[in-house]
Amino acid sequence: MTSQNKMAWLDRGIAITSIIVGTISILQAFDISFPPVRLDILLTSTILLLIALVIKRLKRGKSQKPEIIEPTPPISNFTAQLGTPPNPGFLPKAQRLTQIKPGQNPYVCGSSLRGNSAVFYGRGRELGGILGVLGNPDKPGNVSILGERRIGKSSLLNQLYQALAAIPHFVTIHTTMQNWSIDSQATFFSQLHQVICNALKKQPNAVDDFAHFRDFILDYANKGYRFVLMIDEFDKMTDNPNFDATFFSNMRALGERHEYQFAYMLSSYAPLSDICHEGGIQESKFWNIFGREYTLGLLAKKEAAQLIQEPMQRSLNNDFKQTQDIFAYSGYHPAFIQIVASEYWTAHHLGFDVNADAIQQTLRHYYQDLWQHRTETERDLLLKIAQHETPRNNATLDKLRQRGLVDADNQLFARFFGQVFEKPSTTD
Questions:
Q1: What region holds the Novel STAND NTPase domain (predicted)?
Q2: Residue 116 and residue 53 share a domain
Q3: Among 82, 97, 278, 289, which is 20 to 30 Å from 354 by CA?
Q4: Lowest pLDDT segment from 39-53, 359-373, 402-416
């Protein structure tokens, strides 16, 4: 029986006993008796029982600690933090590598890399440039991050979120559109306001529209705070009918005007100008406030080699000699290196042969997705490159190179990539 149930039974016992005492007292007052029952003795015994119950109830009440019911935090699609100097922010690679333990597979497959991941390599130019834009002394600038699926956009956002945690008076809010449960603008502003208040350790009031949210941001901007809202997979937000041209016009004003000290960092597959020109959103001119756009492509050769060799050496305690074999499958693509290197690590650790069939089956799925999302012009050019034809410099080639389908030498980013191409049919 729980403590609460015991207390309830004591309270009931005291109540019943009190009723019995009262009843006996009334019977005695009217000189009513029930031989052979001695009412005086019964009354004395009942009073003693009542006293014992009351004393026990008082003791239990003093010893029992009041139950503290923790409030259930509201479900939110956002997380937020307030930058503080004690937070180390984004650590140098040497410190991040100390997380790797001997005998543990260091590679991450199927998910983005968390902040300060030991296997986050490269992207120094993007990290430095974006932090510079956000640190503009006049107002944090708006940044757009583009790239293919699995090229590392979410992982980069996680490192930036980590870096901003060390900047005082900088409030960073993060959300991803994947599996969003926001069904209205009111829910959007309410949840956004709630997590910012939590980060600032302030008691929130009711805010569920743009006007009140704007006034809230202005109040704290005047107190020296700056804000950046990170939205991962922004493409999906523009497909949501709850966010119309009026919504994006309001959000544009928030991210454009100096007094709000509010900025956006968005990641998407397509350029914002293309996304926002679809439907009624184009009227908002939301994309016009983004002064800097970063397209993620392949890692540099040195960075890609280090991603393979350094974690291998730390976790296997020996030098790794098959870097070029991995490159044949993955090229300098960060996510595909993780997939292939993980298989090689397992084989070396357990003393087995590398399962080439498993690697090819996994990669073929991803590479077919890359191929399916190409335009006909892009496919024609990729087929020519696969057939060792020297491509001519043009806008299509530049785009493929920037997005990591073609390397700096204008070759396919990985030899295995060419095996998934669908050759055009020929007729006799």
A1: 227-379
A2: no
A3: 97
A4: 39-53
Average pLDDT over residues 5-27: 69
Q: How many alpha carbons lie under 13 Å from residue 5 in its C-beta half-sphere?
A: 2
Q: Do 328 and 275 share a structural domain? A: no
Whether residue 396 lies inside any domain: the answer is yes
CATH number for the domain harbouring residue 89? 3.40.50.300
Q: Which helix (H) or strand (E) holds 325?
A: helix 323-330
In this prediction, residue 68 carries a pLDDT of 43
Are 107 and 341 in contact, with CB atoms under 8 Å apart?
yes
Say if residue 331 is in the same domain as residue 212. Answer: no
pLDDT at 113: 97
Q: Is residue 304 part of a domain?
A: no
Residues 222 and 119 in one domain: yes
> What pLDDT does 46 receive?
66
User: Phi and psi dihedrals of 211, rounded to 5?
Assistant: -60, -45
More confident residue, 204 or 299: 299
Judgement on whether residues 164 and 272 belong to the same structural domain of the protein = yes
Type of residue found at 111: S
Q: Is the separation of the CB atoms in 245 and 283 below 8 Å?
A: yes
Are 157 and 286 members of one domain?
yes
Summarised one tens digit per residue, pLDDT across range 266-324 is 999 999 888 877 655 777 788 899 989 999 999 999 999 999 999 999 999 988 999 99
How many Å apart are CA 253 and CA 114, to the nearest integer? 32
Count Cα atoms within 13 angstroms, Cβ side, for 187: 12
HSE-CB for 44 with a 13 A CA cutoff: 4
Residues spanned by the domain of 115: 79-295
- HEC string for 218-269: HHHHCCCCEEEEEEECCHHHHCCCCCCHHHHHHHHHHHHCHHHCEEEEEEEC
Pick from 231, 238, 143: nearest CA to 192: 231
Question: What are the tens digits of pLDDT across the range 55-98?
Answer: 776 776 666 555 444 444 456 799 999 999 889 999 999 999 99
Q: Is the residue at 85 inside a domain?
A: yes
Domains held by the chain: number: 3
| Residue 83, pLDDT score | 97
| The predicted structure's pLDDT at residue 180 | 81
* Same domain, yes or no: 225 and 359: no
Residues 162, 27 share a domain:
no
